[in-house]
Amino acid sequence: MESENEEFVPWSAWLRDKLKFIEGVGEYGVLFVNVIKAAVKKPPALALFLKQLYDVGVASLPVVSITGLFTGLVLAAQSFYQLADKGLTTLTGLLVAKAMITELGPVLTAFMVTGRVGAAMCAELGTMRVTEQVDALETMAVNPNRYLLAPRILAGTFIMPLLTIFSILMGILGGYVIAVYFFGMSPTGYFDPMPLHITMFDLLTGIVKAFVFGGIIMTISCYKGMKTSGGAAGVGSATTNSVVLSYCCILFTNFFLTLALNIFRSQLQKLL
Amino acid sequence: MIEIRNLKKSFKKSKVLDGVDLEIQNGETLVILGRSGTGKSVLLKHIIGITKPDDGTIDIDGNRISDLSGPELYKAVINMGMLFQGAALFDSMTVEENTGFFLNQHGDTATGAKLSEQEIKDRVFHALEMVGLAGTQQKMPSELSGGMRKRAALARLIVYRPSIILYDEPTTGLDPITSMQINELIVKTQYELKATSIVVTHDILSALHVADRLALLDQGKIVHIAEPEAFMKIDNPIIEFLRKTITEGPRKMGRS
Who's near A165: CB < 8 A, 6+ residues apart? Predict the structure, then answer.
C-alpha cells in the first residue's frame, strides 16, 4: 500500500531519484577511498599491475595513434584552408600543436580509452560480480579492492598521460604530413613557431588533464562494474552507463580544468 | 560452533530472513532445505560475512563474524570456504590457476608458510584427482561442463582444507548421476577434512545422502530442525511434499 501511495506524489519519485544519485556519489567516494586504503596498506601484486599497464597502455596504442594521427591530419587541413585567405597559414603548425596538447589530445585519448578499456573493464567486473566471482574472492579472504580494483585504477591513471603524449605526437606528425606534403609548407615553417609559443604551462595542462581523465575513467568503470546486478542485461546497462557517465564527466571536468588552470596561471603571473 | 541469533535481512521491501536462530556443531553436516527464494543462499552469505544482517548476530567459535569487516573479516573467513551455485570459477584463469589461487595468495594457512610453485602444483593435482578432474589443469572454465565446473570449484575449496564449508545448491541443475557424484564428494570431503559443512539445497535426495541434521527454512525462519529420520516424520506441508517425492518416485513427481 505504501508504495502505491508514493506513486501518486510526483515529486516523491523525483526526490528519490535525486537521493539515489547522491547516494551513488557517496558510494563511489567510499569505494575510491577503500581502494586507496587497501592499496596503501598492502600494494597489489606487481604482476597484476603490469598486466593492467599492458591492457590499458600497450594494447590501446594502435587506437590512440590512429585517433591522434587523424585529428592532426584534419586539424591541419582545416586550419590551412581557413587561414589561407587571411594569410595566416604560417600558424598552421602552431594551431595543430596547441590544440592537440591542451584539448584534443587529452580529451580524444580519454574518449578512446573509455570506449576501449573502460567499457571492457566495467563489463568484466560486472560479469564477475553477477556470476559471484567477486563473492568467491571474498570468501577466499582476498580483498577485491586490492586484487581487482587497485591495479586497474593505478595502472590506468598512470598510463593515461603517456598515451596522451603519444597521441599528441601522432597529431603533430599528422599535421606535418598534410602541411608539408599536401600544402607544400616547409618543414621549418611548420615546426618553427612551436618552441616559441608552446609553453611549459600548455604541456602541463595536457598532462594534468590526462592524469585526471585517467582517474575518472578507471574509477567510474570500476565502480559501475562492482555495482552491477541483474545478470547479462545488468552487465549491458552497467557498461552503457559507465561509458556515458565517463564521457560526461570528462567533458565537464575538461571545461572546469581549462578554466581553473588558466585562472591559476594568470594569478600566478600577477604574483611573479 | 556456529551460532546464529535472530538474524534478519530485508532487500528493498521484501523480508528475506526474519529471525533465523540456528546452532551448528563443529564437524557436523547440516542441510538447510527450503523452497527457492526463501533466503537460503542469503543465509550462507551471512555466515561467511560477505552480506551483513539488518539485525541479529552470527558467532563462529566465539568470533562475532557479523560485526567484522575489512582485514578482520578476511582473517576470520580464511578457514572457511563456499561452493557457489554457479561454481563462480574465475573465468580468466585455467582450472589449475583457479584451484591453486588460494594457495598462491595465502600460502599454507596451517603453517603460515609460503608454498613453492611445485608444491602448489602437487596439491592442485591431488585436489583435482579427488574430484575426478585430473588432466584438466590447462582447460579454461568455459571449456568445462556444468558438472565439471562444480567439481572444479569443489577442488578449489578442498585444496586449502577449510574447517567450515558452505555449499550453495551443490546439485541444482545437474543430472542425477553427476548429482550423486557431487553428494559422494561432499561426504568424502567431510570425512577427510573433518569440516563443519552447511549445505543449502532443495534436492531432498541429496539432503538425505549427506546430512547429519536437516533444517527447514520457511518464511524467513528455521521452522524445523532434526536428524533425518525424525525430520521426515514431522507434520508440515513442505516435508509432506518431500516425503511424497521420495516414495512416489520421479515420474509422478514431475506431473503432480
Answer: A105, A206, A207, A210
Tell me, what's the ipTM? 0.89
Q: Give, for all 272 residues of chain A, the pLDDT tens digit.
A: 344 444 556 777 788 888 888 988 999 999 999 999 988 988 888 999 999 999 999 999 999 999 999 999 999 999 999 998 888 888 899 999 999 999 999 999 999 999 999 999 999 999 999 999 999 999 999 999 999 999 999 999 999 999 999 999 999 999 999 999 999 999 999 998 888 889 999 999 999 999 999 999 999 999 999 999 999 999 999 999 999 999 999 999 999 999 999 999 999 889 88
Domain with CATH 3.40.50.300 in chain B: 49-59+69-196
Give a yes or no: residue A189 inside a domain: yes
Chain A, chain B: beta-carbon pairs less than 8 Å apart? 55
Is the CB of A143 less than 8 angstroms away from the CB of B91? no
HSE of A124, CA atoms in CB hemisphere, 13 A: 16
Is residue A13 situated within a structural domain?
Answer: no
Q: Taking a C-beta distance cutoff of 8 angstroms, is the pair B98, B89 a contact?
A: yes
The class of domain B49-59+69-196 in CATH terms is alpha beta
Q: Do A139 and B101 touch (CB under 8 A)?
A: no
Q: Is residue A26 part of a domain?
A: no
Which residues of chain B are within 8 Å of residue A139 when distances are taken between CB atoms? 48, 50, 77, 80-82
Instruction: Say what angle helices A61-84 and A105-113 make with each other, to 10 degrees.
Output: 140
Taking the CB of residue A213, how many other CB atoms lie within 10 A of it? 28
